[in-house]
Amino acid sequence: MDIPQELLHWADDVDYAVTICDADCKILYMNNRSRATFAKHGDIIGNNLMDCHPPKAQEKIREMLSTGTSNAYTITKNGQRKLIFQSPWKLDGKIAGLVETSMVLPPDMPHYDRG
Fold first, then answer.
1. Using one digit for the tens of pLDDT, what is the confidence trace for 63-109?
2. Contact in structure between 85 and 60 (CB atoms under 8 Å)
3. Cβ(53)–Cβ(61) under 8 Å?
4. Which pTM value belongs to this model?
């Protein structure tokens, strides 16, 4: 299947951070929002993700890479509430790394129960 060239860069300018690492935790991709979020650290593409995380987070990263599980949580940073979602991505059926999305949650965000 040929993927249109413009689709290959779909995440570059979305309004949330997207960061991708490989199975060795090497950072492969950061969209514009992710780069802006971590700008004070310089260009960290190519760096090891483990160097940016404390031991408890490193343990969770290893777990996701070995079991294929996802991780989701919220944080408050700089007065903004954010949703962090981390999930493995696969290549030929094997875990090839992790994708992390980080998005600001509006303070008045509605919640709906659907069932």
1. 999 999 999 999 998 899 999 999 999 999 999 999 999 999 999 99
2. no
3. yes
4. 0.91
Q: List the one residue out of 34, 48, 32, 56 whose CA is nearest residue 97.
A: 48
CA distance 41 to 8: 26
Strands, E, within the chain: which ranges? 17-22, 27-30, 71-77, 80-91, 94-105
Confidence of residue 27 (pLDDT cuts 50, 70, 90): very high
Distance CA 94, CA 39 (A): 32
> How many Cβ atoms sit within 10 Å of the Cβ of residue 77?
11
Neighbours of 35 (CB within 10 A): 18
d(C-alpha 76, C-alpha 107), whole Å: 11
Q: What is the pLDDT of residue 105?
A: 97
